[in-house]
Design goal:
The chain is mainly α. It has one domain (about 45-315). About 90% of the residues lie in helices and about 0% in strands. It contains nine helices and no strands. The longest helix is centred in the C-terminal third of the chain and has 76 residues, at about 275-350. The chain is elongated and about 110 Å long.
Length: about 350
């Protein structure tokens, strides 16, 4: 109880002291205090606008870093498929892994710290190194490398916030780069591997035929899903440049996949398969998908850059409006004080 009374008396004493200080202040000091109280909320609003601008700028930089790293991961996955095709025809001297390793390490050094990808990148690099150095473990390491690269891509997508807004065209582009195109490329590679194994003894039994038909159905489904995703992305972008940039590579990917699929149909009907021709058609489909993914990543970066520019202009306009409002109100206050206070005082002094 005594503590409460002490606090109340202290507050009352402080209030009386402040009131006496204000009463004893000169007119200039009172005006300075009024201006300070007027400026405080405007300064607070300006600081909030600046902080929000810095936050959005950092977020957009994170998105662009994620898009750049995703491009490298997809290129590494494509090189892994090239190596797998070479091994399937017995070309053990081919080396598409070393360029993938160099690119991954470089991208991790540039972008990995902010995206928290170090353990994922290490797993992918280790699996690729095993493919390069251990001939007996290459098949197992290839599967591990593909899975590790997929995990790395998902970590990049999560940490870069590329998937945070489902309504944005950049979200749809990131979904294609992160999910749709890699899935279709992986299915095409797996189908070629299974077909090569199935026709190795120059005959196709019922189980092998069923497995290949199932794989082909999955490939068809993945292709249709990718096609729909591209259409949705182009419609969402509302930019003719997106359609012009993505139309040709999308058509090339669809055409090459159709050629690959047609050859497999014919091989199953005839009961024989030419492995080099199969792998050649698969390579055509893979290269077309890689080109589509690269173009998509380029468009993704352009969309993110355009968004950053737009947000920067909007926030600069907001700061400019706040500044103009401040100057306008300040000028009005000064004019009112001059008319209502300074001029009457000057008149009294002259009289």
């Amino acid at each position: 109880m005594n503590a409460l009374q002490t606090a109340r008396s202290s507050a009352a004493a402080l209030q009386r002291g402040a009131w006496r200080l204000i009463q004893s202040a000169t007119t200039a000091q009172k005006l300075a205090l009024a201006f300070a109280l007027f400026l405080a909320p405007l300064a607070f609003v300006a600081s909030k606008l600046i902080a929000d601008h810095q936050r959005v700028t950092a977020l957009l930089a994170q998105e662009r870093a994620g898009a750049a790293y995703l491009r490298t991961v997809n290129e590494a996955q494509a090189l892994l498929h090239v190596q797998a095709r070479a091994l399937q025809i017995g070309n053990t001297g081919a080396d598409s892994i070393s360029p993938a390793l160099r690119a991954l390490r470089s991208a991790e050094r540039r972008h990995g710290e902010h995206l928290e990808t170090a353990p994922y990148a290490e797993r992918a690099v280790f699996a690729l190194q095993v493919m390069l150095t251990n001939e007996r473990a290459r098949a197992t390491a290839a599967g591990a490398a593909s899975a590790a690269l997929a995990d790395l891509a998902h970590q990049i997508g999560d940490q870069s916030n590329l998937m945070r807004d489902p309504e944005r065209a950049s979200h749809l582009a990131a979904n294609i780069v992160l999910e749709r195109a890699p899935l279709l490329a992986q299915e095409a590679r797996q189908l070629a591997s299974d077909a090569g194994d199935a026709f190795a003894d120059r005959r196709l039994d019922a189980g092998e035929r069923a497995n290949l038909l199932q794989r082909m159905a999955v490939l068809d489904s993945a292709g249709a899903t990718l096609n729909r995703a591209i259409d949705s992305m182009i419609e969402s972008a509302e930019d003719a440049r997106v359609a012009a940039a993505l139309g040709p590579p999308a058509l090339a990917a669809i055409s090459n996949l159709a050629s690959y699929r047609t050859y497999l149909d014919r091989a199953m009907t005839e009961g024989r398969l030419n492995l080099p021709e199969l792998l050649g058609r698969e390579a055509g489909a893979q290269f077309a998908l890689a080109e589509l993914s690269a173009r998509m990543t380029t468009e993704l970066d352009r969309l993110l850059e355009a968004r950053a520019t737009q947000l920067g202009r909007q926030q600069a306009a907001a700061l400019l409006m706040a500044g103009l409002l401040f100057l306008g109100v300040l000028g009005a206050v000064v004019a009112m004080l001059r008319i209502g206070l300074v001029q009457p005082i000057d008149s009294l002094a002259l009289s």
